[in-house]
Amino acid sequence: xxxxxxxxxxxxxxxxxxxxxxxxxxxxxxxSEKEPNARIVIxxxxxxxxxxxxKNAGFACFGSLSEIAADIEMNGLDASLSLIEKRFQGIxxxxxxxxxxxxxxxxxxxxxxxxxxxxxxxxxLDQVNQHLFPIFKSNVFSVVxxxxxxxxxxxxxxxxLIYSPFExxxxxxxxxxxxxxxxxxxxxxxxxxxxxxxLEGNQxxxxxxxxxxxxxxxxxxxxxxxxxxxxxxxxxxxIAKPGRGQxxxxxPIADLKIKGVFHIDEGYYYFRNIENRILFxxxxxxxxxxxxxxxxxxxxxxxxxxIRILHEVILPDQKVEIQMKWAGIMGFTExxxxxxxxINEHTVVAMSCNGMGVALSGMMAKExxxxx
Length: 372
Ligand SMILES: Cc1cc2nc3c(=O)[nH]c(=O)nc-3n(C[C@H](O)[C@H](O)[C@H](O)COP(=O)(O)OP(=O)(O)OC[C@H]3O[C@@H](n4cnc5c(N)ncnc54)[C@H](O)[C@@H]3O)c2cc1C
Prior knowledge:
alpha/beta, FAD/NAD(P)-binding domain, 8-stranded mixed β-sheet, 11 helices, binds flavin-adenine dinucleotide
C-alpha cells in the first residue's frame, strides 16, 4: 500500500508522459517551455530509456535518394516533402536544444552505395534535387563515383556513390544523457522502472515492483503516450507495428578510411564510422514478418548477412572482428507516416518515427502539443 506522503507528493501531476525515449523527452521539454510551472512526470519502464533512442545508429539524416524516391512513389510528393522538411528542421532543433558538443554531432556528409540493380534511381536524381531545393536551398544529391576507391569499397559490387552534404552523425548515448540532464534541470521528474500496465480515464496504472501491486498516477490535464512500438499493447488497439533493428559493431580498425553516414538499398542497410570503428545495421527486409518483433535479440540470419556485406562490400581487403552486437525496437506504420493522434479527451499519442526519430521526433512533439 502506498503511504499518505507518497500519495500527496508522488502520484499527482498535470501531465504524465509515458516513455522516456527521444519523443517523451521532447514532449516534456516543449510542455515545460509552454507551462513552466506545470507538474510534469515521465514514466519509463526501463532503468534507462529502453526502446530505440539508446540503441540506434546515430544518423542525423533525412532519407537517401532511393528512399526518398520510393517514399514519393508510395505517399505522393507533398506528404513526402513535408516529412523531409520536418526531419531537416528536427535536426536543427536537436542541435539548438542539446548543443553540438553534447550531441557529439559531426558532419562528414551522407552517402548512398548503389549496386548494379539500384542504378535506375540515378535517373531520378535531378528531379529529386529540384523537389528538395526549396527546403535545402541547394542541390542535395550528387554523384561522387571517384570516392568508391577512396573509401575502399568493393568496386565489383558498388557501381555508383551518391553524396549529400547535409547529413551528419551523433553520439546517441551522449545525446540522451545530455537531454535527460536538461529535462531534469527544468524540474521535470523521470521515474524509471515504472512499467505502465493500463490507462483508465485520467489515471495511469503502474506496477510497483517493491509493493507488488498496481498504483495509479493521476493527470490533472493530460496523458501523453510516447511508447513508440509498444503503444498498441497499452492502448489495446492496433496502432503501429514493432520493427526490430539489428546492429553489429567492429573492433577498432587501423587507418579507417570510411567517414560519414552510409545507406544501401532504400536505407534498409546503414553504416557509419564511430571513432575508428564501423557500426553497421539493418537487414529487416530479409525477414519483415520475423522482425515485427519487440524482443531485443539479434538473429543469425541478419547478423550473418551484415557480416557478409561488411567483408565483401564495405571492407573487402581487411579482416576485422565484430566486437558487439545489439538490437533496438522501432515503431512502423504501413505508409511510413508518423502517428500524432488524440485517442480520447485525456490522452494524446505521438509515435512511429519509422526509423528516423533522431531527426523527426522534435517536430512531432511540437505537433502533438498543438492537439492539447
Ligand atoms: C537499430 C536502430 C537504428 C536506428 N537508427 C536511427 C538513425 O540512425 N537515425 C534516426 O533518426 N533514427 C534511427 N532509429 C530510430 C530512432 O531511434 C527512433 O525513431 C526514435 O528513437 C524513437 O523515439 P521514441 O521516443 O518514439 O521511441 P523509443 O526510443 O522507443 O522510446 C519509447 C520508450 O517508451 C518506453 N516504454 C514502452 N512501453 C512502456 C510502458 N508500458 N511503460 C513505461 N515505459 C514504456 C520504452 O522503454 C522506451 O524507453 C533507429 C532505431 C533502431 C532500433
